[in-house]
Design a protein that fits this description.
The complex is a heterodimer of chains A (239) and B (234). Chain A is 38% helix and 27% strand. Chain A is an alpha/beta fold and 239 residues long. In chain A, strand 9 and strand 10 form a beta hairpin. The relative contact order of chain A is 0.18. With 234 residues, chain B is mostly helical. The chains are: A alpha/beta (239), B mainly alpha (234).
């Protein structure tokens, strides 16, 4: 059975503001879902709930048709943050953190770390101080750190925001390779239409905490069903 | 001119006291280090867990507790010393522990004195640490406890500095050492109480010599921790 994550009527309020309003989605492995929306539309809130970092106020989450709690979700899902967060240690220890928690032997960790760094073009970075690397390198380290845990659900919150085109391309390629190699549910948030076109198999358009449209990339860009989606694609959306 | 001569004489005496291995001076220095070390250890035992609770958890009354420790930062040592004498005296509620006029009694007093330093500084450092570190640890599979430990690791140098500051405060205090310890020769005489005694007796050179030793120890410890911190950051 292909792995799938189902969000049913998720609601989330930040104080009195409705961040997510009746969000229902079904996300399957083998595809890259791009969560597309303007800033403040609810992308990060949705990813944090899907990662098990926040609890929804209402609604339920199912993984492979079984209800799953946030704590359990965190064991199978990993979120890569918009601004890469690094522990104040070496690159190696940053990558090893999750594996050590899982009780994996140091020899296996060493092999996995090297392979993961290689997959994002950071060979021989193990001994460097993670916080001393550049922004682009940190985001690639964050991606490698998520990859080597082999999560069933990989969530990426605008992972290329503020990066130069070269670093953005490396990250996009690494995500595409991941989709081909592993049966992982991949969801990436972005507000960048061109990136969505390049990376996505399916587009989820979110606006004001509501899902306006879900469609294949081709369908979304060529024949948007929702008027707001059409405006967003044409740059006519009023803030 | 007299003052300059006194200071020069004090330095000469300090060097002589150290070089000659004066047994009284060495016993005072070692006793002071032992008492402040024990006091710091005790303060860490309850101060660090308290800092973690205050710094990392939200609960009712947290603001009040934090402000209590902030207010306690400036408590006069003689006030605390007086309270401890009342508690430790034979007729006091803790008299059966026989802590009055003992080094352990001074250590406990210093531990109480420096606990607010550890709690205030360490909890602020923990609270100021990017909460994204907690999210990061959790999204990599850490439990709540493991995520909190990751934050503690991130702030270990700030915590070390708070502990060193606390040690230095205890090492340099006079009121508790004098009132709880009683300044008994070869029993509870500390660097600060010895300095006070020598000063009162008009033995300024000897008092300044002891003060130089005290300041040197504080300086060496502070510089050492700063060097370690810099090495860690580079």
């Amino acid at each position: 059975m292909n792995a799938h994550l189902q969000l049913n009527a998720i609601e989330k309020n930040h104080q009195k503001v409705k961040a997510l309003d009746s969000v229902s989605l079904k996300l399957k492995e083998g595809k890259i879902f791009v969560l597309l929306g303007i800033n403040g539309s609810g992308k990060t809130t949705l990813l944090r709930i899907a990662a098990g970092l926040d609890e929804p106020d209402k609604g339920s989450i199912l993984f492979n048709d079984e209800r799953i709690q946030a704590r359990e979700l965190r064991k199978i899902a990993t979120l890569v943050f918009q601004k890469a967060v690094m522990f104040n240690t070496s690159v190696y220890d940053n990558l090893a953190f999750g594996l050590r928690i899982r009780g994996i032997s140091e020899q296996e960790i060493s092999e996995k770390v090297s392979a993961a760094l290689s997959s994002v073009g950071l060979v021989d970075f193990e001994k460097r101080k993670a916080k001393k690397t550049s922004g682009g390198e940190q985001q690639r380290i964050a991606l490698a750190r998520a990859f080597l845990l082999e999560p069933r659900i990989l969530l990426l919150d605008e992972p290329t925001a503020n990066l130069d085109p070269n670093n953005a391309m490396i990250i996009e390629n690494a995500i595409r390779t991941r989709r081909k190699e592993k049966g992982t549910i991949i969801v990436m948030a972005t507000h960048n239409l061109n990136q969505a076109k390049r990376v996505a198999d399916e587009i989820i358009h979110i606006y004001n905490g509501r899902i306006l449209e879900t469609a294949s990339t081709k369908e979304f860009f060529n024949h948007p069903r929702n008027e707001m989606s059409r405006k967003f694609i044409n740059g006519e959306l009023q803030f | 001119m007299v003052l300059t001569a006194t200071i020069i004489e004090a330095f000469r005496q300090a060097l002589h006291l150290i070089a000659s291995g004066n047994p009284e001076v060495f016993s005072i220095v070692l006793r002071s280090l032992y008492v402040s070390g024990l006091g710091t250890l005790l303060a860490c035992l309850w101060g660090i867990p308290l800092s973690i609770i205050i710094g990392l958890y939200s609960f009712r009354g947290k603001w009040l507790i934090k402000n209590f420790f902030n207010a306690m930062l400036g408590i006069p040592t003689v006030t605390l010393g007086l309270l401890l004498v009342m508690f430790f005296s034979k007729s006091g509620p803790l008299g059966f522990f026989h802590l009055l006029y003992t080094t352990n009694g001074i250590a406990i007093g210093q531990a109480i004195l420096i606990t607010p330093i550890i709690v205030s500084y360490a909890s602020s450092a923990l609270g100021a640490t990017d909460m994204q570190v907690r999210d990061l640890a959790k999204t990599l599979g850490a439990s709540d406890l493991q995520a909190n430990l990751a934050i503690v690791r991130e702030t270990k140098w700030a915590m070390a500095l708070s502990i060193i500051s606390a040690f230095n405060r205890g090492f340099g205090e006079l009121g508790i050492a004098m009132m709880v310890g009683g300044n008994i020769t070869y029993v509870t005489r500390m660097l600060t109480t010895a300095i006070a005694l020598q000063g009162a007796m008009g033995e300024f050179a000897f008092a300044i010599a002891l003060a130089i030793i005290l300041m040197t120890i504080v300086f060496i410890i502070t510089v050492a921790i700063n060097i370690l911190e810099r090495l860690h950051k580079s």
